[in-house]
């Protein structure tokens, strides 16, 4: 099986490249400098991972999981069968996820080792989309699963708008040049909605042109960055009042707090 090759993004100590899965998932691979071993994030499907790593002559060091949804975890068992049951699987402290060997119970600094690779990372609890959702900050690369997308955010399946608001704040407060690696290519549809919410946002309009070109060339629109998301993502604009008039008009109700604006914006997108 030959797989579509996407360019890697270079960070100081590692490179990151995506493996496409299902219709619009990216399984991000983290390849430490001068190593033939990689870590994969959220392998919902094992087959494309096995195909890509075989083609690139890479081995699997370890697996990182952000939350329990099947399209992020469904490949764990088959990857362990293929690459060996000793492969460490780090993820939320949620017994519902089959195959996690190292549950990560609290936020903070971790040093993960597997094979001859080490990852130093900061773990963030980011509940909202699900209650068990975590995000991994490795140097200046954030792997945030379904919490924040380019120009959008994850649906509220389990958490409250207040929880999602706090989670998005954690991401918004990271250094502006932090690269953001969400698990889905939802950018064009998110941009379409974002333009309804913020019709006068020039940064949003110009990035939309860029994103359309990338997708025409079948290239990922990701990674994004904190700076870009602060400029174009309406879900990160709930703190200021710019969204209040359009939300009040749409829902015929007051949109007078940040959490209310996030909740109304999310419901609007859910019904689009
Ligand atoms: Zn999900």
UniProtKB/TrEMBL annotation:
Could you say which cofactors this protein requires? Zn(2+)
Annotated residues that bind Zn(2+) 2 are located at: 71-72, 146, 184
What does the UniProt keyword field contain? Hydrolase, Metal-binding, Zinc
Residue sites binding Zn(2+) 1 per the record:
67, 69, 129, 146
A single MF term (Gene Ontology): hydroxyacylglutathione hydrolase activity
List the catalytic activities from the record.
Answer: an S-(2-hydroxyacyl)glutathione + H2O = a 2-hydroxy carboxylate + glutathione + H(+)
Q: Does the keyword Heme apply?
A: no
Q: In which pathway does it act?
A: Secondary metabolite metabolism; methylglyoxal degradation; (R)-lactate from methylglyoxal: step 2/2
Record domain Metallo-beta-lactamase: where: 24-184
Please state the Enzyme Commission number of this protein.
3.1.2.6
The record's InterPro entries line, in alphabetical order, gives: Clx_II_MBL, Glyoxalase_II_hydrolase, HAGH_C, Hydroxyacylglutathione_Hdrlase, Metallo-B-lactamas, RibonucZ/Hydroxyglut_hydro
- Cofactor details (free text): Binds 2 Zn(2+) ions per subunit.
User: In terms of domain of life, where is this protein from?
Assistant: Bacteria
Q: How does it assemble?
A: Monomer.
User: What does the protein in this record do?
Assistant: Thiolesterase that catalyzes the hydrolysis of S-D-lactoyl-glutathione to form glutathione and D-lactic acid.
Q: Which family does it belong to?
A: Belongs to the metallo-beta-lactamase superfamily. Glyoxalase II family.
Q: Which PANTHER family match?
A: HYDROXYACYLGLUTATHIONE HYDROLASE, HYDROXYACYLGLUTATHIONE HYDROLASE GLOB
Protein name in UniProt: Hydroxyacylglutathione hydrolase
Q: Which organism is it from?
A: Shewanella dokdonensis
Point out the gene that encodes the protein: gloB
């Amino acid at each position: 099986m030959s797989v579509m090759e996407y360019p890697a993004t270079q960070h100081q100590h590692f490179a990151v490249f995506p493996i496409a899965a299902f219709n619009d998932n990216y399984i991000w691979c983290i390849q430490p400098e001068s190593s033939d071993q990689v870590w994969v994030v959220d392998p919902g499907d094992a087959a494309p991972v096995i195909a890509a790593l075989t083609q690139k002559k890479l081995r699997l060091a370890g697996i990182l999981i952000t939350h329990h949804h099947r399209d992020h975890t469904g490949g764990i068992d088959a990857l362990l069968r293929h690459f060996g049951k000793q492969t460490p699987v780090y993820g939320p402290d949620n017994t519902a996820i089959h195959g996690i060997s190292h549950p990560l119970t609290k936020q903070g600094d971790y040093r993960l080792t597997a094979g001859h690779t080490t990852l130093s990372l900061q773990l963030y609890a980011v509940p909202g989309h699900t209650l068990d959702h975590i995000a991994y900050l490795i140097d200046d690369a954030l792997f945030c699963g379904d919490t924040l997308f380019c120009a959008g955010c994850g649906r509220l399946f389990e958490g409250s708008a207040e929880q999602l608001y706090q989670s998005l704040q954690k991401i918004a407060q990271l250094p502006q040049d932090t690269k953001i690696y969400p698990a889905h290519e939802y950018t064009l549809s998110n941009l379409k909605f974002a333009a309804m919410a913020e019709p006068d946002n020039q940064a949003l309009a110009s990035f939309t042109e860029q994103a359309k070109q990338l997708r025409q060339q079948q290239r990922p629109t990701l990674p994004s960055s904190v700076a870009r998301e602060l400029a174009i993502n309406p879900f990160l604009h709930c703190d200021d009042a710019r969204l209040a008039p359009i939300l009040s008009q749409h829902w015929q109700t007051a949109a007078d707090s940040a959490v209310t604006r996030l909740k109304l914006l999310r419901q609007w997108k859910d019904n689009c």
